[in-house]
């Protein structure tokens, strides 16, 4: 972004909102928005506690397992849809439907089927993350140059070898983009799951802090969650940039 001919770094926007937050908080307009400085002090206080670290561990477990399942199922399914017309026609309408549907409404259905517990939370993470991973993997495979596939066949590559050595690597930029977006959606999924299904992890913290109007604690936990999601997304974006070579080499 440029302003009056000067390039303004993106972090300037965050600083501007932080200053505005501090001013509004110091004015005491509402108890729902304490000063940012007080929130940061509270964050330093609560993060090392056993309660917070335990909640972080519970949330991280459901988040990681859910994402592993979403990636493990979503990437092969997207590649299959990209290579097979029949599979594409069978699955694409459902993928588009679930991608655009209000998924929160389906959480009670999962809850009825699998009960109240960590399994339902993990499935909620999968539900939020998998569809964009499937679509981006499909788009990546459909962008592969036909000459690359023909070359693999001419060298006698089996379907498994073509999958492992051609499709995965050639479609890697789009696959990583889908995983990055899926991880961002998974953050929403794990919190919704922990709030609606089983009050554990960060969901329990938000419930506790919100019900007692401990807004400094509430915002502190929220900032930690946003920061972790931001670091994850930026790490995957960095990885995407690193594998741009494969996109360029597809011709």
Describe this structure in words.
The protein is 80% helix and 2% strand. A hairpin with a 2-residue loop joins strand 1 (2-3) and strand 2 (6-7). It contains twelve helices and two strands, in the order E-E-H-H-H-H-H-H-H-H-H-H-H-H.
Explain briefly what this protein structure is.
With 251 residues, the chain is mostly helical. The chain has helices at residues 11-27, 36-46, 50-83, 85-100, 107-114, 118-142, 146-154, 159-170, 172-196, 201-211, 215-242, 244-249; strands at 2-3, 6-7.
Please give a handful of descriptors for the protein shown.
12 helices; two-stranded antiparallel sheet; globular; 251 residues; single chain; mainly alpha
Give the percentage of residues in beta strands: under 5%
Low-confidence stretches: none
Sheet with the most strands, sense and barrel status: 2 strands, antiparallel
Q: From N to C, what is the helix and strand string? A: EEHHHHHHHHHHHH
Arrangement of strands in the largest sheet: 1-2
Protein structure class = mainly alpha
Write the layout of secondary structure elements.
Elements: E1 2-3, E2 6-7, H1 11-27, H2 36-46, H3 50-83, H4 85-100, H5 107-114, H6 118-142, H7 146-154, H8 159-170, H9 172-196, H10 201-211, H11 215-242, H12 244-249
Antiparallel strand pairs: 1-2
Helix pairs in contact: 2-11, 3-4, 3-6, 3-9, 3-10, 4-6, 5-6, 6-9, 9-10, 9-11, 10-11
